[in-house]
Amino acid sequence: MFGLKGKRHLTRELGITPPVPEPGRHGIALVACVKNEVRYIEEWVRFHKAVGVCHFHLYDDGSTDGTFDLLRNVLSQDELTVIPWKMRMRDEGCGEHLNGQTIAFAHAILNFGGRYDRMAFIDVDEFLLPKKGRTLQDALRGAEGFPNVSLPWHMFGHSGHVERPAGPVCLEYTMRVADPLRQHLDASNFKCIVDPVEVTKVAVHHFQTRSHGDRTSNDAGKTFAKKHRKAADFYSAEFLQLNHYYAKSVQELKEKTERGWSFDSSIDKYRTKVSATIKYIEDNVVEDRSMVDFIRNSGITLI
After folding, report:
1. What pLDDT sits at residue 9?
2. Which residues are CB-contacts of 28 (< 8 A; sequence separation ≥ 6)?
3. pLDDT tens digits, residue range 136-160?
4. Any residues with CB less than 8 A from the CB of 269 and at least 6 apart, and which?
5. pTM (2 d.p.)
6. Is the distance from CB of 171 to CB of 295 less than 8 angstroms?
7. What is the CA 27 to chain-centroid distance, rounded?
8. Contact, 34 vs 80, CB < 8 A?
9. Please, is 1 exposed, middle or buried when counting C-beta atoms within 10 Å of its C-beta (0-12, 13-18, 19+)?
10. What stretches of the chain show up as alpha helix (H) in DSSP?
């Protein structure tokens, strides 16, 4: 069972009873909400499959562009589960929108979590980059088995691209915000990898476990309470780095803002937020070629 918390706000957190571990549970599964990502989804799944993801649980928010037809030609039935998931819901009492992504993450843990050692919760514009070893399993050794790992966004901007480049996202974008933990409302946050049979509270950007409460580990095994993880001492990308290709080209960012956001009824409000975020990124960039080097050294085929 899960319960809503907070009457006058978006659904921020859901409390759950952890699933029972299934016999022989193993591997890392990836959970994401997806809508009309046919341009990008193949690169994303090929990369994550190559670094050790064994199954993709994808929540389809009404895609109409052939995203999932493509995926069924790339992944086998043993590697892909698609859940129809319309994400526009509201609290009938107060009229506030509920966060369908949070609810999807809780659903994934409750229904599938007992099968896996780890579940990662990211978006299609986010990539989990091993910095030590060849796979996510190798990289997660740095966290020393801690059941709740928080990875800071490394937010990438336009990298000089006005129009969509011909090559893969991973290889075309190499300029990111300099300080991932510098306080900025929409450019500083985390995504998480958890042991699903330990999770008692779910949100998009943080989790809680029964064994450690709200404490979370960085990729190097250093643990903090959730409210302190934006401290400079928490930062590490020694073993595992989360690359968030937020903007892509100027053309693609414009298309993104015109589509709007699932949980914001105001296009103008969303456009203002995105504009402020990309300005912050572009004003504070450094070059980061760690993904390019990793792909070339490991021989991963993306498309």
Report:
1. 45
2. 52, 53, 54, 116, 117, 118, 119, 120, 136, 137, 140, 193
3. 999 999 999 999 999 999 999 999 9
4. none
5. 0.94
6. yes
7. 18
8. no
9. exposed
10. 41-50, 67-74, 100-112, 136-140, 169-172, 250-259, 267-282, 290-298
